[in-house]
Amino acid sequence: MLVPKRFDRVATLYSKKRGSRRSIRAAVAAVLLCSGSAQAQCHWREPGRTFPAGQAWRCEAIRWADGDTLTARCAGLSQAVSVRLRGLDTPERGERRYREASAELRRRTEGREIEVRPHHRSWERVVADVLVAGVNVGQAMDREGWSKASCARR
Fold first, then answer.
1. Phi, then psi, of 129 in degrees rounded to 5
2. Does the structure show a pLDDT above 80 at 128?
3. Is the Cβ–Cβ distance between 97 and 91 less than 8 Å?
4. What is the pTM of this model?
5. Which of 65, 97, 100, 98 is nearest to 80 (CA)?
6. CA gap 50, 53 in Å, rounded
7. Which pLDDT does position 123 carry in this prediction?
8. Is residue 151 within 8 Å of 41, Cβ to Cβ?
């Protein structure tokens, strides 16, 4: 595992007193990963807006693929649309907490009118801000810890 150069000198100085240089590098890398500094290594950037700003659809959620994707039936649209919540990246099928995240999204949206504010398209889905009673569901779930910790594509 690579450790940024700025930490290499600290590791070298420390290793002269105790332990091997390799074990110090591993310890520094572990601290970086746990502290969130590893997010700096994430190079993902959100694509630009492809839908007009201010556009909003009144919808009803009818299916839930996982904790950040649902299918909605929207007024004025001829067919159901797959919506990926902007600002949220939950575990995928087979990953830990997948079922819990899916159930949480369903709990927040089932049987309620949702407002979908589309931003851009990705993987045949509309990436959008999804609001229920004025609350952005993606942002709320992200704040509550439902997003993945490592390089989440929010």
1. -80, 130
2. yes
3. yes
4. 0.71
5. 65
6. 9
7. 86
8. yes
Residue 122's DSSP bridge partners are: 125
116 phi and psi, to 5 degrees? Answer: -105, 120
Share of the chain above pLDDT 90, in %: 62
Q: What is the C-alpha to C-alpha distance for residues 66 and 75, in angstroms, rounded to an integer?
A: 23
- 144: helix, coil or strand? coil
| Cβ 129 vs Cβ 138: under 8 Å | yes
| Tokens, residue 143 | 């704040």
Residue type, 89: D
The sign one gets for the Cα dihedral 134, 135, 137, 139 is positive
Please provide the DSSP assignment of 15-43 as one string.
HHHSS-HHHHHHHHHHHHHHHTGGGGG--
Q: For residue 14, which amino acid is it? A: Y
Per-residue pLDDT tens for 42-63? 677 888 999 999 999 999 999 9
Residue with the two structure tokens 């999804």? 130
140: its two tokens = 């709320």
3-class DSSP state for residue 113? Answer: strand
Would you say the C-alpha torsion 146, 66, 120, 133 has a positive or negative sign?
A: negative
Dist CA 25 CA 35 (whole Å): 15
